[in-house]
Amino acid sequence: MSRLRNEPGHPGLAGLEEAVFRRIAARTQVSAGSQLRLGAVAAFGAVLLGVASNGVTTPVEASVTLSPFGPSNPLAPSTLLAGPR
C-alpha cells in the first residue's frame, strides 16, 4: 500500500468527477405524474398478485393442538421413547 501511495495518479482520473456530474445533469428528468402512475400500477400489480396467490391455495386441515403438560402430547419424550401402544 505504501508503494501505491507513492505512485502518481492515473491521468484518466483527473476529470472523472466532472464528467460524472455532467452526465447526471444531462439525463432527462421523469415527471412527478409519470412516477405516480408507475407507483399506482406497481401497487395494483402487487395487490393483484397477492389476491391471485391467496385464491389458489387449498384450505389446510386444523392440526392437533399441542400442550406442554397435556396427556396427549405426541412429541413428549416419554411418548417417543415408549413407542406406540
Describe the structure.
The N and C termini lie far apart (73 Å). The chain has helices at residues 2-6, 16-26, 32-56, 77-82. It is mainly alpha-helical.
Task: Please outline the helices and strands.
Elements: H1 2-6, H2 16-26, H3 32-56, H4 77-82
Strand fraction equals: under 5%
Tally of DSSP β-strands: 0
Number of helices: 4
Q: What oligomeric state is this?
A: single chain
Structural class label: mainly alpha
Q: Uncertain spans, ≥5 residues at pLDDT below 50? A: none
Mean pLDDT, to the nearest integer, reads 80
Helix content estimate: 55-70%
Q: How would you concisely characterize the structure shown here?
A:
55% of the residues lie in helices and 0% in strands. By secondary structure, the protein is mostly helical. It is elongated.
